[in-house]
Amino acid sequence: MSDTTNGTHGSRTAIRTCPLCEATCGLQLTLRGRTVTEVRGDPDDVFSRGYICPKGAAFGELEADPDRVRTPLIKRNGSHVPATWQEAFEEIGRRLPPILEAHGRDSVGVYLGNPNVHNLAGTIYGRVLVTALGSRNLFTASTVDQMPRQVAGGLMFGTGLSIPIPDIDRTDHLLILGANPFASNGSLLTAPDIPGRLRAIRRRGGRIVVVDPRRTRTAKESDEHLFIVPGTDALFLFSIVHTLFDEGLVSPGRLLGFTNGIEQVRASAAAFPPERTAQATGIDAATTRRVARELAAAERAAVYARIGTCTQEFGTLASWLVDVVNVLTGNLDRPGGALFTKPAAGSPTTSGIPGRGKGLSIGRRHSRVRGLPEVMGELPVVCLAEEIETPGEGQIRALITVAGNPVLSTPDSGRTDAALGSLDFMVSVDIYLNETTRHADVILPGQSALTRGHYDLAFYVLACRNIANYSPPVQPLGADEVPEHEVLLRLAAIAAGQPADIDIDPLDEMVAREALRRGVTNPQSPAHEADPEEIWEAVAHRRGPERVLDILLRTGPYSLTLEELERNPHGVDLGPLEPRLPEVLKTPSGRIELMPEPIERDIPRLLSALDRRRDGELVLIGRRHVRSNNSWMHNVGSLNRGSNRCTLLVHPEDATRLGLVDGGAALVGSEAGRIEATVEVCDELMPGVVSLPHGWGHAGTPGRVQSARPGVNSNVLARTDLIDPLSGNAVLNGIPVTVAPVMAPV
Ligand SMILES: Nc1nc2c(c(=O)[nH]1)N[C@H]1C(S)=C(S)[C@@H](COP(=O)(O)OP(=O)(O)OC[C@H]3O[C@@H](n4cnc5c(=O)[nH]c(N)nc54)[C@H](O)[C@@H]3O)O[C@H]1N2
Ligand SMILES: Nc1nc2c(c(=O)[nH]1)N[C@H]1C(S)=C(S)[C@@H](COP(=O)(O)OP(=O)(O)OC[C@H]3O[C@@H](n4cnc5c(=O)[nH]c(N)nc54)[C@H](O)[C@@H]3O)O[C@H]1N2
Ligand code: SF4
Ligand SMILES: [Mo]
């Protein structure tokens, strides 16, 4: 059992996976009544072994925040007033269907934010809402994040979740680009205590090289740090590929038997000798050649790249080249290299005919105003504002946001803010009244993390070991609480034309039945052609996300059951990653496509960047801090205190040249907008690069802590016209800006 009563003072402990980042640490909570009085790392967690970070430690404070939204709110005469759930759904039932009837399905847009992926209800039922609505105007935080990685993986290996994971526990050599796991705790690389795991690489004699325009904590803890001009990773990686061919270091080994396109890659790489890219990247040719030789010489090496290489102009090319290098050095799919996971539940890489599939298609339709291609069923979020602003058929007139804050998190905040203000109707499901949800006509509170079960469907697909860990609810539902999956189901029912007070159980049953149908018809499942009624009976006592999860586990590759996971509150370790090629492939050819056609067509654009000169131009990049979480958790006192972290970092040379002083104010401008920020002179940056974290600039929201320390919003400066064209992903790093001192009034 995960719950034990301590006896003393009526307190008890409970075990629960932390939902606050991708690391999936086990937490040991002490509760008195409904209050969390203490949070520690769970020493017995099979994956995290007691590790915890300041955000996880603040889990109880976040749950108890008096500023959280706990009852539905309806906007009346411009201000939000508390309402009952029935009133809130009646309001939605009254106002949403007429818009759909008069203007069609596309007139209602959806934005799904990042915490949905950390929430079983959001992961499973967000999709149900989207399907019921049937609108092409679906946007998510993926296109301000990892979409380039998903497109590259999809084109090469077959699905948007075909992402090789660096085997950091067994590698001898790790090349890291555009990631700062000492702050972020890892991304597209679920590895609790990633700082410890990285240190262990060096302790066992391995080597870590970090490529980043800033000397981050991760860079400081590595063997070598290379400054790179923002946005030029694809040039650098292409030069590594060039060197591998040039110096006879290509050795894909067994991968040769099922890889297409090696010769095309060789031909393309010919245009990118290190001597040719050095000026653009800022990394001299001898260093690039040495980095390539070291990768080739290491017995077990992996290249790992994250958000700095995705949210940039050549995001998909850079992400593709990461795996090209892993393939050419023979490190893909071998222990200590980069491998595919075998998740216990719900992964596209464990379904269908082994070794073959439809592949990833992009651009099946296009956005209405700008004609940007759809990717994996969604449109780039840089299109959101224009799709609301531009009249005509298919214009977005109403919006549903779930666990997202696009006003702070997506480009051109000023414009997004105004666009949301112009909607005919808006519904938000969120735990806070924030810069986005303040526009909503109805706010429906998200569920407490204490009253819902947890399983990381998404992050076990991206983990450095195969793990399964389910946390049951820590306490029963509050008197006025509605489970988040029920909220999403009811919204789905209303969107499908049903009355607001309809019984949603049959709809929930349909969702579970569909998961079961897919499970037993999956030729890779050990439950293939099992009697579905037998499984249905075994899960009959469950409802909602738990029923679906139990079905996914039972029809998954390990034939687990939710009951087994309930018996193992510290998780089930299914072992280290193992080679899965070629059966893991889902490409139509059944082979690795090392030079997919859309990628090949994008290379001339990269060539044109070779001779770009910056001539004193400044570019803006972002950064993360271990005590922050995108645009939220700034209202948690223990996290948002101490020195101001929302500062503009400027290199001393640039500061002198521009007349900026440490602690002084600077006006930062781009083609999208202008903000005033406090300068922090800092030699960790590459000259010519300035850095501001994102997610700040809180305004017009009730949070007491964050109102006192609001910060400034870097996405006022990000532009909706700067994108990586293959994925539609926004460019959030490498934005040209001007910086000037703000003169104190005389
Ligand atoms: N300039 C710049 N911009 C960036 C980035 C960058 O590096 N630079 N990073 C981008 C990235 S990687 C991401 S993922 C996005 C994030 O962008 P978003 O996903 O749009 O925003 P978040 O800041 O994560 O806001 C999440 C919201 O979910 C709410 N929430 C939290 N938990 C729950 C819950 O359990 N249920 C419900 N219903 N709501 C909940 C929070 O209150 C908050 O309002 O930002 C992106 N924006
Ligand atoms: N504490 C905390 N943890 C988080 C989050 C958070 O907000 N706070 N957000 C979570 C989310 S949603 C995500 S997606 C992950 C992201 O996880 P990471 O990718 O590790 O995120 P960052 O710490 O922003 O690291 C990105 C690095 O890229 C560098 N960079 C910028 N531009 C370039 C470039 O052009 N080339 C190269 N090579 N590097 C560049 C930046 O200097 C920075 O050091 O973190 C997650 N974890
Ligand atoms: S590293 Fe991530 S999962 Fe672990 S305690 Fe911190 S926020 Fe939670
Ligand atoms: Mo993210």
What do you see in this structure?
The protein has 746 residues and is an alpha/beta fold. The protein has four domains: 62 residues, Phosphorylase Kinase, domain 1, CATH 3.30.200; 289 residues, Rossmann fold; 190 residues, 3-Layer(aba) Sandwich (Dimethylsulfoxide Reductase, domain 2); 128 residues, Barwin-like endoglucanases, CATH 2.40.40.20. 31% of the residues lie in helices and 18% in strands. The protein has 25 helices and 33 strands. Helix 9 packs antiparallel against helix 11, helix 9 packs across helix 12 and helix 11 crosses helix 12. The protein is globular, with a radius of gyration of 25 Å. It starts with a strand and ends in a 5-residue tail after the last strand. The structure holds ligand MGD (2 copies), iron/sulfur cluster and molybdenum atom. One ligand MGD binds next to helix 6 and helix 13.
Biggest pleated-sheet summary: 7 strands, mixed
Oligomer category: single chain
Within the CATH hierarchy, at the fold level, what is the topology of the largest domain?
Answer: Rossmann fold
Could you tell me the number of beta strands?
33
Quickly count the domains.
Answer: 4
CATH class annotation of the largest domain: Alpha Beta
What would you report as the Rg, rounded to the nearest angstrom?
A: 25 Å
Structural class: alpha/beta
Bound molecules: ligand MGD, iron/sulfur cluster, molybdenum atom
What is the CATH-assigned architecture of the largest domain? 3-Layer(aba) Sandwich
**Beta-strand percent range:** 15-25%
Q: Please, what is the average pLDDT?
A: 97
Q: What's the total helix number?
A: 25
- How are the strands ordered across the major sheet? 6-5-20-19-18-7-8
Measured as a percent range, the helix fraction is: 25-40%
Low-confidence stretches: none
Large-scale geometry = globular
